[in-house]
Specification:
Elements: E1 2-10, E2 13-21, E3 26-36, E4 39-50, E5 70-72, E6 95-99, E7 109-112, E8 115-118, E9 121-122, E10 126-129, E11 135-138, E12 144-146, E13 151-153, E14 155-159, E15 185-189, E16 196-204, E17 216-225, E18 231-239, E19 242-253, E20 256-267, E21 284-286, E22 298-306, E23 313-315, E24 320-322, E25 324-328, E26 331-335, E27 346-350, E28 354-360, E29 374-377, E30 381-387, E31 396-399, E32 402-405, E33 419-423, E34 427-430, E35 433-436, E36 441-446, E37 451-453, E38 457-460, E39 468-472, E40 476-478, E41 482-484, E42 495-498, E43 502-505, E44 516-518, E45 522-525, E46 536-539, E47 544-547, E48 556-559, E49 564-567, E50 571-573, E51 578-582, E52 585-588, E53 592-594, E54 599-603, E55 605-611, E56 615-617, E57 620-622, E58 627-632, E59 639-641, H1 647-650, E60 653-654, E61 662-663, E62 669-670
Parallel strand pairs: 6-8, 7-10, 8-11, 9-12, 10-13, 11-14, 12-23, 13-24, 14-25, 23-26, 25-27, 26-28, 27-29, 28-30, 29-31, 30-32, 31-33, 32-34, 33-36, 34-37, 35-38, 36-39, 37-40, 38-41, 39-42, 40-43, 42-44, 43-45, 44-46, 45-47, 46-48, 47-49, 48-51, 49-52, 50-53, 51-54, 52-55, 53-56, 54-57, 55-58, ...
Antiparallel strand pairs: 1-2, 2-3, 3-4, 4-5, 15-20, 16-17, 16-22, 17-18, 18-19, 19-20, 20-21, 61-62
Length: 681
C-alpha cells in the first residue's frame, strides 16, 4: 500500500491513508499515528473501498477517502479475515542529514543511507537514495536545480521551509519603463539577486487597454533561475480578448540588480492564466513598449520582493528512483525528455503547491512518473506542458485543485487523461483534454463540491469503439466545447453518462457527433446546440434529459421507461428531431413547445406531466398499443397538439377525469363532458 493525504492533526499526532489498488477495487485504511514517551503507536480509524462496476480503471489511488468510498469492516484476525486492515506497518527512521547553505560544486555521486540531504542552488552531483528512509529534501528558501536525475529508492520532498516569513514589498519601486534587452536598467542597489523571490509589476503601452488607463497591474508567473544566476519571469495581464505577456530578466551587476525586457507576446484568449510563453506554441510576438504611449507593451514599473516566497525547485534531469515525490507550498519544475526507470511510486502536490512539467513522450507511455498516481489537493496547480505528459490511463486525482492545459497539438492540449477523478471543486482550464484512443476512458466526479471542465474535451475513438464514461456523484459542468478528433476513423466515440448527479454541457460549438447513453442522473443541455446534431441520445430508465437552451440541430432522441425529459426552455427542440417516448415522462418547467419541426413517437405507457404549465407538441405518431397519461389541468388552454388527432390517437390518452379526451379546433386537449345523451320515449 502507498501513503496518501498525510495530515498533522496536532504536535504529537498525524493521520495517513494507506491505499492499494486491486483488479476490482481501490482499498484504503486510514491510520492515526501518535507519539508519546513510550514511542510511536498506530491505530486504524476506518477501512473503505471504492468499486466502479462499469469502469476498466479501478485504480483510483490518491482520492480522499474521507469524502468517498464505502465503509468496510476492520479485520481483527489474520489477513484472510472478513474485512480489511493493515497486516504489517513498518516505520523507517530518517536520520539527521546535511543541509547545504552555499552552492556546492560537487561532481560525482552523493549516497544517502536512510539520511536526509537538502542541497541549494545548482547541485551537479547525482543523488543516490540507497534506502527507503533516504530523503532528498528541497526545502530551503534558496532556489535549487538538480541537472542530474536522482536514483535509487527513497523519497523526494519539495517544500517551503517551515515557518517561512510572508512576502512583503520593502524595496523602492522602479518607476521608469524597462528597456529592451540587451540594454538594462539598475532597479535595486546593494542587494543580492539570490535574496529576491518575487516582483510587483505594472504593464503599459499603446496596446494595453487600447492606450487608455494603463499602466495596469500584472500577475507574475514562471519564476526561473538560470544556470548563469540570472532570473527570468513572465508578467501577464488579461486585456481585450488576449492574454498578454512581457518576459523580464534580472541579473546581478556588482552589488546592484539590473533588469530588462526580453520579449512581448500574446495569445488569443483572455482566460489562459499562467500560460507558459517559453515552452508552449501558439503565441505571437509583438513590440516592446518603452513608454506608455509607444506601440506594443512593456514594463512601466517594477518592485522586487526579498524573502518570504521560496524560489522554485527544478529537476531538469528528471527522476530515476522508486519512491514518493511530494510538493508542498512551493513551485516545482520537472523537465526532461524522458522519465527514467524505475518510476516513482506516487507524485503528490498539495497545500497550494504548483507543479510545472515539460515532457515529450509517446502517447502509449506513462508520462510524468511513468504511470504512477498523480494527486493534487489543497488548491494546488498543475501545468502539464509538452505532449503526452500525463500519459494515457494513469490514475490522476484533482482534489480542490486546478489543471491548466496550455500545451497545444492539433487543436487541443495534446494531453490524454483516461483515468481521471475530480473531487471537491476541481477545475480544468485551457486547451481541450483528450480521452479515448488506447482504450475506454472513465472520469469519476466526487463531492462534496461540484467540479468544472472549462477546457473542454477531444474524444478519440478506436476500432473497438470503447466508450468515454462520466460518472457523476456531484454536478459536473463542461463549459467549453466537446470535439471529435479531426482524423478519419477516430470520430464518434460513444459517451456514457452515469452516476446520480448531473453532467452539464454549457458550451455551444460542439463537433462531437458520437452516440450518447444516459444511464443515470441527468444530462443537461444548457447551451444552444450543445451537441453537433448527428448524435443519437438514449436516455435509459430512471435517467433524465434536461433541456435549458434551444437545440436547433437534427438529433435522434429516445427515452425509456420512467426516463424524464425536462423542458426548462420555451423552445427545447426546434431542429428536425426524431424523438421517441417509450414509456417516458415529459415534464415542462415553463411554458414550452416540444419538437414543432420534427416528429415525436409515443410508444409504451408514457406520461405528459404538465400540471398548470402550457405545453405544445408538434407532429406526433402513436403506436397502436401506446398509452399516454395526462397529468395536469385540461380545463384551460394547457396541452395543445399542433396536428388534429384522430379518434384512435385521442383514445391513447388517459385523462385526469377518466373521461374520453377530445380536441378543440385550436388543437387543445380537453376531458370535459361535451353534452348529455338522452333518449326520447
Amino acid at each position: 500500500a502507498q501513503p496518501f493525504h498525510w495530515q498533522r492533526t496536532s504536535p504529537t499526532t498525524a493521520t495517513v491513508q494507506f491505499q492499494a489498488a486491486e483488479a476490482n477495487a481501490t482499498y484504503c485504511v486510514k491510520v492515526e499515528l501518535t507519539e508519546d514517551a513510550a514511542g510511536l503507536s498506530a491505530r486504524a480509524l476506518y477501512a473503505k473501498s471504492l468499486v466502479l462496476p462499469e469502469s476498466p480503471h479501478q485504480d483510483r489511488r490518491g482520492i480522499d477517502f474521507d469524502l468517498a468510498g464505502d465503509e468496510l469492516p476492520l479485520a481483527t484476525g489474520s489477513d484472510t479475515a472478513n474485512g480489511v486492515n493493515i497486516v504489517r506497518l513498518q516505520a523507517s527512521l530518517t536520520t539527521v542529514g546535511l543541509t547545504a547553505r552555499q552552492p556546492v560544486d560537487l561532481p560525482g555521486r552523493v549516497t544517502l543511507g536512510n539520511a536526509a540531504f537538502s542541497p541549494v542552488q545548482q547541485f551537479p552531483a547525482r543523488v543516490a537514495l540507497s534506502g527507503v528512509a533516504s530523503l532528498l529534501a528541497l526545502d530551503t528558501l534558496d532556489p535549487v536545480t538538480l541537472p542530474v536525475a536522482p536514483v535509487g529508492r527513497g523519497a523526494l520532498r519539495i517544500a517551503a521551509p517551515a515557518g517561512a516569513p510572508q512576502s512583503a514589498v520593502t524595496n523602492p519601486v522602479h518607476n521608469v519603463p524597462l528597456p529592451k534587452a540587451p540594454a538594462a536598467d539598475t532597479v535595486l542597489t546593494g542587494v543580492n539577486l539570490s535574496e529576491i523571490t518575487d516582483a510587483v509589476v505594472t504593464l503599459g503601452g499603446l496596446w494595453i487597454s487600447d492606450g487608455r488607463g494603463s499602466p495596469v497591474p500584472a500577475n507574475v508567473y514562471h519564476w526561473r533561475v538560470a544556470e548563469d544566476g540570472t532570473v527570468a519571469f513572465q508578467a501577464q495581464v488579461f486585456d481585450d480578448v488576449h492574454t498578454k505577456c512581457v518576459k523580464v530578466r534580472l541579473a546581478q551587476q556588482g552589488s546592484d540588480i539590473v533588469a530588462s525586457c526580453e520579449y512581448a507576446s500574446y495569445v488569443l484568449s483572455r482566460f489562459l492564466t499562467g500560460f507558459d510563453f517559453d515552452t508552449n506554441p501558439g503565441a505571437t510576438t509583438t513590440s516592446i513598449a518603452t513608454n506608455n504611449t509607444a506601440e506594443g507593451y512593456g514594463v512601466m514599473s517594477l518592485a522586487l520582493i526579498q524573502g518570504g516566497t521560496p524560489l522554485p525547485a527544478t529537476l531538469s534531469g528528471g527522476t530515476a528512483f522508486a519512491g514518493p515525490i511530494t510538493v508542498e507550498r512551493r513551485t516545482a519544475y520537472i523537465s526532461a525528455p524522458i522519465i527514467s526507470s524505475p518510476a516513482p511510486t506516487s507524485i503528490q502536490v498539495r497545500d497550494g503547491a504548483t507543479l510545472v512539467t515539460a515532457l515529450h513522450r509517446s502517447p502509449d507511455a506513462g508520462g510524468l512518473g511513468n504511470g504512477c498516481p498523480l494527486v493534487l489537493s489543497g488548491d494546488s496547480i498543475l501545468y502539464p506542458n509538452g505532449l503526452f505528459t500525463l500519459g494515457m490511463s494513469r490514475p490522476i486525482t484533482l482534489n480542490a485543485s486546478e489543471c491548466r492545459l496550455y500545451s497545444f497539438d492539433i487543436g487541443d492540449s495534446g494531453q490524454y487523461a483516461n483515468n481521471m477523478t475530480l473531487q471537491n471543486g476541481a477545475r480544468l482550464v485551457g486547451n481541450r483534454v483528450r480521452v479515448g484512443n488506447a482504450g475506454a476512458a472513465h472520469w469519476l466526479i466526487l463531492g462534496p463540491a461540484a467540479s468544472t471542465n472549462a477546457a473542454g474535451f477531444t474524444l478519440v475513438n478506436n476500432a473497438q469503439k470503447a466508450p468515454f464514461t462520466v460518472e457523476c456523484h456531484v454536478d459536473f459542468a463542461v463549459t467549453a466545447s466537446m470535439r471529435d478528433y479531426p482524423q478519419t476513423g477516430l470520430y464518434d466515440q460513444p459517451l456514457v453518462k452515469a452516476g446520480p448527479a448531473s453532467m452539464i454541457l454549457a458550451a455551444s460549438g460542439s463537433t462531437f457527433g458520437g452516440p450518447i447513453t444516459v444511464r443515470g442522473g441527468a444530462l443537461c443541455l444548457e447551451a444552444p446546440n450543445a451537441l453537433a446534431g448527428t448524435n443519437t441520445l438514449a436516455v435509459l430508465s430512471g435517467a433524465e434529459l434536461r433541456i435549458t437552451a434551444t437545440q436547433n440541430v437534427p438529433l435522434t432522441v429516445s427515452l425509456s421507461t420512467n426516463a424524464v425529459l425536462t423542458l426548462a426552455t420555451a423552445d427545447a427542440f426546434t431542429g428536425d428531431i426524431a424523438l421517441t417516448l417509450d414509456s417516458a415522462i415529459v415534464r415542462p418547467q415553463m411554458p414550452a413547445v416540444l419538437n414543432l419541426a420534427g416528429e415525436t413517437l409515443f410508444t409504451g405507457t408514457s406520461v405528459l406531466d404538465f400540471g398548470e404549465t402550457p405545453l405544445a407538441i408538434g407532429p406526433a405518431l402513436f403506436d397502436p398499443d401506446a398509452t399516454v397519461t395526462l397529468t395536469g389541468n385540461l380545463e384551460t388552454d394547457t396541452l395543445r397538439f399542433q396536428q388534429q388527432l384522430t379518434s384512435t390517437q385521442l383514445g391513447c390518452f388517459v385523462t385526469p377525469s377518466g373521461r374520453c379526451a377530445w380536441q378543440t379546433a385550436d388543437g387543445y386537449i380537453r376531458d370535459t363532458a361535451r353534452g348529455i345523451l338522452f333518449t326520447l320515449q
